[in-house]
């Protein structure tokens, strides 16, 4: 069975950022039939991630770190990605 986009995102973020908390939520069903819906049911995601690697790092840089970890997924196979990134204790 092929790996889902959700599990791919989880794996990439875990390997790159060693999060203490990670939630990857598939929100594609809320966007069915809208722009960016490719019919796969894997086009819109939200990520909630907490990692020590975000300590002392700006919000913009945290989002860049997440996007870097995901490579070509955002803007390619995934149409929309909402990111909430924090350091432990924030």
TrEMBL record:
Pfam families: BolA. InterPro entries: BolA, BolA-like_sf. Signal peptide: none annotated. Coiled coil: none annotated. Gene3D superfamilies: BolA-like (3.30.300.90). One of its GO terms (biological process) is iron-sulfur cluster assembly. Belongs to the BolA/IbaG family. PANTHER family: BOLA-LIKE PROTEIN 1 (PTHR46230:SF7), PTHR46230. This is BolA family transcriptional regulator. It comes from Aurantiacibacter xanthus. The lineage of its organism: Bacteria, Pseudomonadati, Pseudomonadota, Alphaproteobacteria, Sphingomonadales.
């Amino acid at each position: 069975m092929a790996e889902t986009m959700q599990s791919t995102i989880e794996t990439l973020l875990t390997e790159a950022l060693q999060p203490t908390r990670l939630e990857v939520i598939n929100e594609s069903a809320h966007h069915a039939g809208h722009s960016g819906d490719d019919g796969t049911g894997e086009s819109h995601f939200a990520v909630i991630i907490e990692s020590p690697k975000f300590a002392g790092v700006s919000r913009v840089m945290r989002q860049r770190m997440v996007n870097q970890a995901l490579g070509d997924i955002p803007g390619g196979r995934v149409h929309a990605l909402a990111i909430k990134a924090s350091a432990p204790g924030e």
